[in-house]
Fold this protein.
Amino acid sequence: MRKNNPGGQTQFLPIFMCLGMSVGTAIGTATDNLSIGMCVGMSIGMCIGAMIDAKNRKAKNDVSAENEDIEAEESKDT
């Protein structure tokens, strides 16, 4: 069986997309404008999820670049 996420890192975009749609549905129902509420909620959730995913991806890349620098220094020493 193949894993969809081989790095094991949590993907936040779908999580926040669903949460945004839920909140948007609640707000849309309260304001009697369900379709607009769902769209706005999903859009906001997608933006938040994408920002968190990008932040995590950048942090992971920074750590891997730092590890490569350390390995390069160690190989120079030997």
Q: What stands out?
A: The radius of gyration is 20 Å.
